[in-house]
Amino acid sequence: MPTIIVEGPEISVDKKRELARKLTDIAVEIYGIKHIVVLIKENDPANVAVDGELIADKKKM
Amino acid sequence: MPTIIVEGPEISVDKKRELARKLTDIAVEIYGIKHIVVLIKENDPANVAVDGELIADKKKM
Amino acid sequence: MPTIIVEGPEISVDKKRELARKLTDIAVEIYGIKHIVVLIKENDPANVAVDGELIADKKKM
Amino acid sequence: MPTIIVEGPEISVDKKRELARKLTDIAVEIYGIKHIVVLIKENDPANVAVDGELIADKKKM
Amino acid sequence: MPTIIVEGPEISVDKKRELARKLTDIAVEIYGIKHIVVLIKENDPANVAVDGELIADKKKM
Amino acid sequence: MPTIIVEGPEISVDKKRELARKLTDIAVEIYGIKHIVVLIKENDPANVAVDGELIADKKKM
């Protein structure tokens, strides 16, 4: 049973619903397996850094 | 040092204590290594989807 | 930068290419962020269990 | 659907089978959910370090 | 693009900033790739166990 | 016990040794906890995509 873990920022429940459905459709198509689990992880901008700088700090600029 | 990550719904501290102890006992037995780390991850029903549908939506039905 | 980790069985490079492109397109659309990382993890059927039974054993039946 | 990811060293298929079954039984009991996925990740001793030293180097001593 | 995921206890934003910058510097040096993502995961002491005992319980002693 | 998971390309054992030691030193300094686990995950260029394109395909250009 393929599992898709998405690490991103906070999003609305409507976006989560759409994200989960669309990612699942693609996984079903590619793997040919219909049972798919999607885990959406929401990260605070202070907990993610790109190129050594926290997203929370980039936003202040 | 084996590490066990459990992705599940919210549970009580009593259940976490029991889960950690029992998972550790099994890992010690199978791996023959006594130092085990357990990370319990609690996921909101709006952040998990099975077969393309959020758990939060399934519960409404 | 959202990161998508996919835990599934082995697939061909053509399927990986298609999977990565399609998952990225959806993440860009939902998050409104264009830089997306996709990590495809391929798991041996002896290393995955559903409902307590290894996929490798289910296939033998 | 709870998912259990186990990061450990290489083990035999017999041990994987036993590990998956026992971890699943505990998760079913604690969560009261019968569908459980177990992912067993096998790590080379050169890819794991405890207290700053690779397991591969500890073994040489 | 290497990704570093850190599972630890809660820390201040100042410590997160320092952690992200220093981990990134090392990854850039070792991999020779300048784009690095760092994800800092903060875990409640009731959600982490070492040797079968929750960190939350160890602290009470 | 903080755990650091590094998802990157293949590297030599010498680089793994250096990476593990340096990441551990930083984690000890930031968290004030001396027991640290580092897991180094090596990914094939066909299993990682940035901006929707496999690293394996980018290299061909």
Any descriptors?
homohexamer; alpha+beta; Macrophage Migration Inhibitory Factor; two-stranded parallel ribbon; two-stranded antiparallel ribbon; 2 helices; 41% helix; elongated
Mean pLDDT of chain A: 95
The name CATH uses for the topology of chain A is: Macrophage Migration Inhibitory Factor
Largest sheet of chain A: 2 strands, parallel
CATH homology superfamily name of chain A = Macrophage Migration Inhibitory Factor
Q: Which ranges of chain A are low-confidence, i.e. pLDDT below 50, for 5 or more consecutive residues?
A: none
The whole-angstrom Rg of chain A is 15 Å
Proportion of beta-strand residues of chain A: 25-35%
The succession of helices and strands of chain A, N to C, reads EHEEEH
- Main β-sheet, spatial strand arrangement of chain A: 1-2
Helix segment tally of chain A? 2
Q: From the 3D coordinates, which CATH architecture of chain A would you assign?
A: 2-Layer Sandwich
What sort of overall outline of chain A do the alpha carbons produce when their principal axes are compared? elongated
Total tally of structural domains of chain A:
1
Count of β-strands of chain A: 4
